[in-house]
Design goal:
The protein is an alpha+beta fold and 112 residues long. Helices cover 46% and strands 12% of the residues.
């Protein structure tokens, strides 16, 4: 049986805790908002990433918007980027060990 992806990571800011969630729905919503969680460049533009990061937070924080995500990405960048990396590691542990979380097409054909 294949278990669905369901992982979380937290961002601690002072006395506040924000929980990011990784599952099909949140990743799809983040990508639709213009943020690909499989690509975390060092020079990520917070304006581009904020709507997608907000989608990762919404399951646990329904009123979490891009404005708050933008604040986290700019004012608390290290904590936010650490949480995003942790989220990917928890969601895709084997892929992250290999250094590439993107799924690959099989290179060999199945035996008939």
């Amino acid at each position: 049986m294949v278990a669905p992806i369901n992982a979380t990571a937290t961002i601690e800011v002072g006395e506040e805790t924000y929980i990011l969630k990784a599952d099909y729905a949140t990743f799809s919503a983040a990508k639709e908002a213009g943020f690909n969680p499989f690509k975390l460049p060092d020079d990520m533009d917070p304006l581009d990433a904020a709507p997608g990061v907000a989608e990762l937070a919404k399951p646990n924080h329904p009123d979490f918007g891009a404005d708050k995500a933008f604040a986290l990405l700019t004012l608390h960048n290290e904590a936010t980027m650490t949480a995003l990396a942790e989220l990917l590691e928890k969601a895709f542990p084997a892929a992250m060990e290999s250094g590439d979380p993107k799924p690959k097409r099989p290179t060999k054909k199945r035996a008939a």
